[in-house]
User: Fold this.
Amino acid sequence: QSVLTQPPSVSGAPGQRVTISCTGSSSNIGADYDVHWYQQLPGTAPKLLIYAASNRPSGVPDRFSGSKSGTSASLAITGLQAEDEADYYCQSYDTSLSGSVFGGGTKLTVL
Amino acid sequence: EVQLVESGGGLVQPGGSLTLSCAASGFTFSSYEMNWVRQAPGKGLEWVSYMSSSGSTIYYADSVKGRFSMSRDNAKSSLHLQMNSLRAEDTAVYYCARDYDSSGRFDYWGQGTLVTVSS
Assistant:
């Protein structure tokens, strides 16, 4: 059971828009700690995709965007492409655990 | 170019010990906080431990507290994870990750090293 809750899977056709939710609590996202998102392609290490809820590192396409409200955050991907098929993880800090926490991960399938 | 290269993984019996290392290059290692994150086969990411840039502050996940010990050698730009009393549930790929700005933003990750705990 992960501290941050994500849907196990989402899917969409090429060109469509999908969103992935990340629900936390008052000891992590709700405590105003930053939320970050990672993309993990099959067989590779995770890659930082979105940081501090809505910022993209250099090189990440603007098709990826993030937002945060209250105890939740979300990742949106527009103009789905086949290469977006991957696992996506949200992450924050939890004050009661004194450490980082990850969501359980969401597998994105591009139909 | 920032690089993190883990080593030391392998097969170990339950109750055994193993030490992982992470060699850093391409940045001023002593200026950054570092973390270990693991991923069991077919499972999600699990944060394992954190160390401040000076090494004076360390945090561990409850699942490894008392069994794992994190250390760093800033002179050699290296990070280590001493793992004792290993259990089957510690089987995972272990990644070292750089913490960009103390917000938990892991901006660079190594390629990972596989630890298998089995008899």
Q: What stands out?
A: The longest strand of chain B covers residues 18-25.
